[in-house]
Design brief:
1089 residues; alpha+beta; Alpha-Beta Plaits; six-stranded mixed β-sheet; 28 helices; zinc-finger; metal-binding; catalytic activity; zinc
Length: 1089
């Protein structure tokens, strides 16, 4: 038919020929129509594994083509489909893009990271199309007829489109050519086995993927088979045959010449060359422009870095000279002070001895002459030292002025706004004019503004189904910032967990599909639920001196208000707002309805009053049906807002009741914080060498805290969440209308889905595929302490009460002097106490940086006023200063004394008003101390791993030893006992109460000594434990300092490891039982007889 088939052993040439534009249009006036192959070779194919099914093939193609321009084909791999994902085969023409994608090991598609793997095609076998047997072709087949793949009969006789599928070799339910056939599988396995024995039979530059059924178990790297002579063959091919070059426009030379001279390719590439030249010129122009910009930016950056480097170098030299001058002044003062002291003593002697200057007394005359001579010498020396101090003072003043100029120049190089540059200049001026760091810290320290008192602001809104009016509520909250927001007519939205910034949600279902009430209260207001019934919520607002009650109510149409419920609560300071659906002419309605008549009669009988808006609240009836009810409505004002897309208007109520509001929050400019620390790096580098580690720790921590205050401002919360702009309001309203239509249609679909889901759950064990465990990881805040049948709510009294309890809790425990184990532990502890401090191994800067990188950016402040987030902002060069500080401490084998004081906050284990023993203390330790502690902790963990200090019965506090492992082991022990031996089993679960808090120091040190922990680590742990203290903080109140004589602080990473080592010998002590340990919990298993 005139078809031509091209063969090549170069994959590059094959890829080149896959593009039809790379062929000539004709040969010897014969038109050529190239046929594009379906696939590229496996060397250009990549597999995207486990791509989710909800990502369509078109989306994958669009996303991949954005980054990779040489995509040839993309298809879903048959046989890889599951319920959730499938594999995608991606073919790339460019070997560079292929290598890039393979080296990245992943690609991002629609926010999902898809793993990328090399595509290896499985070996195929030759199957005869006549007899369907492997190993030969139809031309060499001696079978008498052409067998059907489905049934095995002669396919020339009759129709075989719907014949019964049955393999004519094994009579199984599959096609005769299917790889499921045992005969074909065994044949392929034998071929693969032969290739394994003789891998040199494989072609060079070829690797074969071994199917799963042909792999040998227990042998590594059994997935791919290669020719061992590949490297030699590759070198021979490269030396003997020319490699195809895609960058060249020449066709590869043919090794074997042909005698047919009639076929001479004539290629007209003039147009192609012109177009390529134009494109190349455009690319060159763009490259030149980019290179110029890069060169300009690099030059500017180098100039800036040179300028900064020179400034820092000058400052470092000046700091050195300044330190030398200070040292000389210090030496001079040490020389002058003894002379001044002796001179003053002389004057004292002159004053106390009468007649000292009596010239008639020779003895007195001689003594007086000596005194005068001594005074004269002292004055000369003092004058000389004074001149020396004056000259040094001038030098210091000159250096300070130069440093001020350099600091101002550094501030000028700061890349920030005008306001930020002004703030930085002020900080630099204050730094230059300081008298001491302590004085500067006091100057920069800021106290948050006190809370403001505002009148209670309440918003009432019938949302006509919250599902379609969430944007309305969000706009109203951001525009008016009410303290309380009451939403009625919530509808089906009551079942959803809607969240609104800065507000807590309390909700209650209704009696019909349009009912339901939600109360939103601001997070700064202390509230609790007082009562709940259908379509009704009552909350108690805790003010500074009293409590008031605010309720939300919804009365369905044609229903009477719940007068019994209203009478129950309106006998106290209570205000109830809602959609009452009561109309009466007394409150400006056109006509009365049954609810309005009964409500008016009830008001006259009880003396209660209404808080009535002055405009209609319903858009449909021009009636006032949304209002408030109170015992005394004096001081309340209202305003009907012409906003929202519901059929009711929102109403804003304001009272004369004042509420404390935390209306300020901190904003920190971390850019200035980091830049200023970089500018004064040389100063702290010199200080860390001249001060001891304890003084530097205190000074540096205080400076970081005060600099944080200096770089921070306290803003009013009203500026934090500004109202929506008009165009967003209009957009939200249009979205609400469209959403309303959408939800009406969707409800029908959801109903059908729900019915199908319930039907599926009711079948078999499907319910366990649907059910999920629920965990509440957040401990609720508490508002007071229950003690002696009363509730303590004053913050200072709460802090003092908790401190009194913990003082007894952490007091020094009593031990039995007659108990030999106790006495042995006491002796070990005293021996370590009397041992001199042993230096620890030097800490490397890598250890410091590694722990710094692991910091989580938490902003909670510790007892020193610093936070982990603040330390994350430290410039990189400060790692050297921290390393020097830690090594000073490690050299002495001790711990920072200030870091032993903890700021303790408590979490409730039992509701809003727990007792003292139902609190979980959390210690907020100084973060710099925790930094140092983690480095030592890593060394302890490394020692445990080297010495294999683990027990099989322990899980928790250790990597790769999880709770699931311990539970599975415990259940297996019980199962084997009951099932195998048919014996009863008793399991006792023990919880060590206050395990960390009651850890006895002598017992711990004795356990570490028995484990043969190195002496420097034991001594350091002893220093870390001793002389610890804490203070309890609740709100803005703090207690006195409490000393700890037992236990380790919760919140320390080292505490958990020490407790694990403390109970290391517990399983061996209880060896007659089967023990299981997880963290501080113990399970004992007793096997019955």
């Amino acid at each position: 038919s005139g078809d031509l088939i091209c063969y090549t052993k170069h994959t590059e040439l094959f890829v080149y020929l896959c593009e039809t534009q790379n062929y000539p249009t004709e040969l010897e006036n014969i038109l050529i129509t190239p046929s594009r192959p379906k696939h590229l070779p496996p060397q250009h194919s990549i597999v995207l594994k486990t791509v989710p099914n909800y990502i369509t093939k078109e989306e994958i193609e669009v996303e991949t083509k954005k980054s990779f321009k040489s995509i040839f084909n993309l298809e879903e791999m048959k046989g890889s489909f599951t319920d959730k994902s499938r594999h995608i085969r991606l073919e790339l023409k460019s070997i560079d893009e292929y290598n890039t994608l393979l080296n990245n090991k992943g690609i991002t598609i629609n926010g999902h990271l898809i793993n990328v793997f090399e595509f290896l095609s499985p070996p195929r076998i030759l199957i005869c199309s006549k007899c369907n047997d492997p190993g030969h072709i139809k031309r060499n087949c001696n079978f008498p007829y052409e067998a059907c793949r489905r049934c095995g009969q002669d396919r020339t006789i009759g129709e075989h489109k719907e014949c019964i599928i049955s393999c004519h070799r094994c009579e199984q339910n599959h096609l005769a050519t299917d790889y499921k056939c045992q005969f074909i599988t065994e044949y392929r396995r034998s071929l693969v086995y032969k290739l394994k024995q003789q891998p040199n039979l494989l072609p060079s530059n070829m690797q074969m993927f071994i199917p799963i059924e042909c792999r040998e178990k227990g042998i590594k790297n059994n997935m791919i088979l290669r020719n061992p002579s590949n490297e030699m063959n590759n070198s021979d091919i490269q030396s003997n045959s020319p490699r195809f070059n895609l960058s060249s426009h020449d066709w590869p030379t043919v090794n074997k010449t042909t005698n047919n001279n009639n076929i001479i390719p004539q290629l007209n590439e003039q147009n192609i060359w012109k177009e390529l030249k134009v494109k190349q010129d455009e690319i060159n122009i763009k490259n030149e422009e980019i290179n110029r910009q890069l060169q300009f930016m690099q030059t500017k950056y180098d100039d800036y870095m040179n300028k900064m480097g020179s400034i820092i170098l000058i400052m470092s030299q000046q700091v050195k000279i300044q330190n030398d001058n200070i040292e000389r002044c210090y030496t001079t003062m040490n020389e002058v002070l003894p002379i001044l002291s002796s001179t003053l003593e002389t004057f004292q002697c002159l004053i106390t001895k009468p007649g000292m200057f009596n010239q008639q007394d020779n003895n007195n005359s001689f003594e007086s002459q000596n005194i005068v001579k001594h005074i004269s010498q002292s004055l000369v020396f003092i004058k000389d030292r004074s001149d020396f101090l004056t000259s040094n003072q001038k030098v210091l003043r000159s250096l300070v002025e130069q440093q001020n100029a350099l600091m101002a120049q550094i501030a000028g190089n700061f890349n920030g706004s005008l306001k930020e540059k002004s703030t930085l200049s002020e900080i630099v001026d204050e730094w230059n004019s300081r008298t001491s760091i302590t004085q500067l810290c006091e100057q920069w320290k800021k106290t948050p503004p006190n809370s403001l008192k505002q009148n209670l602001l309440l918003l009432l809104y019938n949302v006509e189904s919250l599902n379609t009016h969430v944007a309305d509520v969000d706009i109203l909250l951001s525009s008016y910032n009410p303290h309380i927001c009451i939403l009625t007519g919530v509808g089906a939205g009551i079942k959803k967990n809607f969240t609104f910034p800065n507000y807590h949600v309390i909700k209650q279902t209704g009696t019909n599909s349009f009912g339901g009430v939600i109360i939103l209260h601001h997070q700064d207001i202390k509230c609790k639920v007082a009562d709940k019934e259908s379509n009704f919520i009552l909350i108690e607002i805790l003010l500074s001196n009293e409590s008031i009650y605010v309720g939300g109510i919804y009365v369905p149409p044609k229903s009477l208000p719940p007068f019994q419920l209203l009478s129950k609560h309106l006998n106290k300071t209570c205000y109830i707002f809602g959609d009452i659906n009561a109309k009466h002419t007394d409150w400006q309605c056109i006509r009365n309805n049954q609810s309005g008549i009964h409500l008016q009669s009830w008001l006259e009988e009880t003396g209660n009053e209404l808080i009535i808006p002055h405009k209609p609240t319903s858009k449909r009836s021009d009636s006032i049906i949304d209002f408030g009810i109170a015992k005394n409505a004096t001081g309340w004002t209202s305003e009907v807002l012409n906003e929202g897309t519901s059929d009711h208007y929102p109403i804003l109520f304001q009272s004369s009741i004042s509420i404390d509001e935390k209306s300020f929050f901190r904003i920190t400019n971390w850019k200035i914080f980091t830049f200023f620390l970089s500018a004064i790096y040389e100063y702290w580098l010199s200080i860390v060498y001249n001060l001891d580690e304890q003084t530097f720790f205190n000074l540096f921590s205080a400076f970081l805290s005060s600099l944080w205050d200096r770089c921070s401002t306290f803003e009013h919360s009203a500026n934090y969440r500004p109202p929506w702009p008009p165009h967003l309001v209009m957009m939200a309203k249009s979205v609400n209308r469209a959403r309303h239509i959408f939800f009406n249609e969707r409800n029908k679909i959801l109903q059908t889905k729900t019915e199908n889901k319930l039907s599926w759950i009711s079948k078999g064990q499907n319910i366990w595929k649907f059910a999920k465990p629920s965990f509440h990881a957040v401990a609720p805040p508490f508002r007071g302490i229950s003690k002696d049948s009363r509730k303590i709510t004053n913050t200072q009294e709460i802090a003092d009460t908790i401190a009194n309890f913990f003082e007894k809790h952490f007091q020094e425990p009593a031990y039995d002097i007659n108990n030999p184990i106790h006495q042995e532990a006491i002796d070990s502890f005293k021996q370590i106490e009397y041992t001199p401090r042993v230096p620890l191994e030097q800490i490397s800067i890598k250890e410091v940086v590694d722990e710094w990188m692991r910091f989580k950016g938490k902003k909670s402040t510790d007892s020193a006023g610093t936070s982990a987030f603040m330390l994350k902002q430290l410039p990189q060069e400060y790692m050297g200063i921290i390393t020097i500080l830690f090594n000073k401490c490690a050299q002495k084998g001790n711990f920072f004394e200030t870091s032993k004081h903890a700021k303790v906050i408590c979490l409730s284990k039992d509701g809003l008003y727990p007792t003292e023993n139902k609190l979980r203390p959390i210690s907020l330790l100084p973060n710099i101390g925790k930094w140092y502690e983690r480095i030592i902790h890593n060394r302890i963990i490394k020692w445990c791993e080297q010495q294999n200090i683990y027990v099989d019965e322990q899980s928790g506090f250790t990597s790769n030893r999880r709770l699931q492992t311990r539970i599975a082991s415990l259940i297996e022990d019980i199962r084997l006992t009951i099932a195998a031996c048919n014996r009863p089993t008793l399991a006792i679960f023990v919880d060590f109460m206050s395990a960390f808090d009651r850890m006895w120091y002598p017992g711990l040190i004795h356990s570490l000594t028995k484990l043969e922990m190195p002496l420097p680590l034991i001594k350091w742990i002893s220093s870390w434990l001793n002389n610890r203290s804490f203070s309890v903080h609740h709100g803005n109140a703090s207690s006195r300092n409490i000393n700890m004589y037992v236990g380790a602080p919760q919140g320390s990473v080292l505490a958990a490891t020490l407790f694990r080592l403390h109970i290391h010998f517990l399983p061996s002590t209880l060896k007659q039982f089967t023990t299981h340990l997880f963290a501080d919990d113990l399970a004992l298993v007793f096997v019955g007889s």
